[in-house]
Write a sequence for this structure.
């Protein structure tokens, strides 16, 4: 049958919390098992890609970690290594969807500039 729906479900429980007889989780939000899988998937720069996002004057880090995030691999959640104006460090790339993103330096992808240098005026 032709359908736009997934033909399988991926249990969102992280490996560290997995229990064989646990009921299927409902309405999970936050970092899930699929996030762990996607962080291993290379973007357009390939498996040797190693990029760091320093947009807006702050380094993008591993979610709830202290290491810089390799943004050449796909991610949905990340942490800023410095707190933002509201004192937060944990971030999500999109609002209520499963948007994963990876940076690239590939020539066939148009570059995008998201912010000016901090020392430049408006």
């Amino acid at each position: 049958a032709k359908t736009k729906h997934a033909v399988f479900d991926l249990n969102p429980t992280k490996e560290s919390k997995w229990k064989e007889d646990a009921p299927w989780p409902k309405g999970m939000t936050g970092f899930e098992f699929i996030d762990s899988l996607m962080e291993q998937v290379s973007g357009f720069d390939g498996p040797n890609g190693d990029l760091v996002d320093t947009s807006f004057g702050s380094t993008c880090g591993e979610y709830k970690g202290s290491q810089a995030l390799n943004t050449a691999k796909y991610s949905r959640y990340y942490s800023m290594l410095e707190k933002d104006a509201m004192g937060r460090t944990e971030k999500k790339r999109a609002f209520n969807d499963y948007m994963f993103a990876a940076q690239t330096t590939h020539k066939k992808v148009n570059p995008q500039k998201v912010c000016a240098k901090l020392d430049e005026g408006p």
Notes: The chain has a mean pLDDT of 83. The CA atoms of residues 40 and 56 lie 25 Å apart. The radius of gyration is 17 Å. The longest helix spans residues 33-38.
